[in-house]
Amino acid sequence: MVRIAFHYLGCRLNEAENEAIARSMTDKGHEIVAIADNPDVIVLNTCGVTADAMRKSRNLMRRFAAAGVRLLVLMGCAVDLMQAGENPVSDDDLRQGAKRDDSDHSADQRFEQKVDRESELGTRRNADRGFAIGVDIESESSIVQRSEEDTEHSSVQDDDLRIVRIYRDDRPKAADIIARAIDETWNASVAQAPTAYKPRIRCFIKIEDGCNNACTYCSVRLARGRERSVAGADIVEEIRRCLALGEREIVLTGVQLGAWKEGDRRLPDLIGDILSKTDVERLRLSSIEPWHLRPELYELWSDKRLCPHFHTPVQSGSDAVLSMMRRRTQLAEFESKINDLRRKIPNVRVSTDLIVGFPGETDAMWRETLDFIERIGFDDIHLFRFSARPGTIAATLPNPVAPEVKRERWNEAHDRMMQIKRDKMQASIGALCRVLWETPAHEIVDGKRRWSGYAENYLRLYRYFDADRSMRGMMTCEIFGENDIATNIEQDDI
């Protein structure tokens, strides 16, 4: 038996992949631990959607290589893009440990500052699971410290480190590849009887991978390839297994979630199968493109187990910018679909993605986006400042927006969004909701511990409970005030 730690950057799809691999590793008799608990193996699932994500991925590759592990497994979009030639990091470079280029240093500092902010906001996801499937803030800090102070005392030298890279086409076989690499690294089979898998309470299931769209700014298609769907029977069986382990909410995820298909069957058929063939308590969609929002999908929400939340990325509030992005939607169509959602699904929350400062975006186009934000009244927005990705059309477009202008526009959109959120929060005070409490903070204040969780409509709530109580599970709660509700919006580049 070996001790394996998992870490991911980026989207929920990476998190879903990590969780599936972790479940398979426990079946093979290995133990899943936190990165801070001196693992033998680290599996890093990287992200390459933004320039910052690539820098963070390279950073963590180097840090984890310096952590004293015997085996480092690298996968994800950044690894695939590096294979295609985008600023690759060689195995020899990784074996140099924590050495970095000067160009990465400022990115390191920004990343660490973000980690500190997330820690303060109580967003640790794995506090009582015992291991890091997602981003574990305390583990992140610990691994940095250990790489700098304790590596020289490790029994594993740089030359002993084995590095395995799993590329796009081999991702479905990742668990078997890792198991084989473990046996080869230890020169014998080290598998034992199955070990315990600690459920997270909210489980991500990948149902689709890849993308057939040609959005001019996006490198995901380059990294993940064309659309392909997981078989419906396999999805249902995986969900049954997760529910048997104690998961309370299932989140379906994919690059193009709405593109799932199996013969003539589409996403509504799959959702119907899950609802009828499993005992799922709550079922949620992670993200769905506007062109996949159809009436036959909305009709399923008469089943209260489906969470009334839709994250549908629009990317701009200007039709001219959408045309330059080659997005498959126009604003009038998008607005009509959102209005339809709100009419047909009670208490639904709608969130979106917006890219700020796309090449050619004029002041007039930006004002259109601001007006659009006000008109739609999104419940949340993920705001991104545009950054050019190698190999994309947008990287070659004329009339780039100056960095200081992008910052100003991001701040302006952020301020508008926060005012809308504050107004909606005020309106929600006194409402009853079913909250899945999942994440406790480490700190205890006056005998109380703060927990975070999500309502059925994906409103994130915080509340203090007696420190000696475990609140993991579902509870009907009244929203007391704005302090109960998470209000932060992340800034990032795309």
How would you concisely characterize the structure shown here?
Helix 2 links the parallel strand 3 (41-46) and strand 4 (71-76). 37% of the residues lie in helices and 21% in strands.
Features:
494 residues, alpha/beta, Transcription Regulator spoIIAA, 4 domains, 5-stranded parallel β-sheet, 4-stranded mixed β-sheet, 19 strands, globular, disordered C terminus
Question: Could you explain the architecture of this structure?
Answer:
By secondary structure, the protein is α/β, with parallel strands linked by helices. The protein folds into 4 domains: about 5-185, no CATH class; about 200-305, Transcription Regulator spoIIAA (2-Layer Sandwich); about 315-425, Transcription Regulator spoIIAA, CATH 3.30.750; about 430-480. The chain has 15 helices and 19 strands. It has helices spanning about 10-25, 50-65, 75-85, 90-95, 100-120, 135-150, 175-185, 220-225, 230-245, 265-275, 295-300, 320-325, 330-345, 365-375, 405-430; strands at about 5-10, 30, 40-45, 70-75, 160-165, 200-210, 230, 250-255, 260, 265, 280-285, 310, 350-355, 380-385, 430-445, 450-455, 460-465, 475-480, 490-494. The strands form 5 sheets. Strands 2-1-3-4-5 form a 5-stranded parallel sheet, sandwiched between helices. It has a 4-stranded mixed sheet with strand order 7-6-8-11. β9 (about 260) and β10 form a beta hairpin. The two termini are about 40 Å apart. Residues about 100-105, about 110-160 and about 485-494 have low confidence and may be disordered.
